[in-house]
Design brief:
mainly alpha, 4 helices, elongated
């Protein structure tokens, strides 16, 4: 289970970094979203991956609520930041006429 979780985190992180290095605003927004998902899964894994953790006081050792609260907070903040980045990207496309990150057109698409 831990190996699958680690591979999923690695795949999400690698995909997010790759998309962040692209020169288009939609790819950057998608890369930041994938990175935030990877961080959320990492924070969730900090609360131990065990199937025998108690839920709602039904015996066993209770689950740690701190990582779950951190993930919930990160989801809300991530949603707000994604909405802000999408509006910022749309504004950049409207003002500049293209969706390149630095506002300059590529040579092959300009001709």
């Amino acid at each position: 289970m831990e190996a699958l979780f680690a591979m999923t985190l690695g795949l999400l992180t690698a995909s997010g970094v790759y998309l962040l290095l692209r020169a288009r605003t939609f790819a950057v927004v998608l890369g930041l979203t994938l990175l935030s998902y990877a961080v959320n899964l990492f924070l969730f894994a900090m609360g131990r991956l065990s199937g025998e953790a108690a839920v709602l006081g039904q015996g066993g050792t209770p689950a740690d609520p701190v990582p779950q609260a951190l993930v919930l907070t990160a989801i809300v903040i991530g949603f707000a930041m994604t909405a802000f980045l999408v509006v910022l990207a749309l504004r950049g496309v409207a003002d500049l006429g293209n969706d390149h990150v630095d506002g300059q057109q590529d040579e092959e698409s300009a001709s």
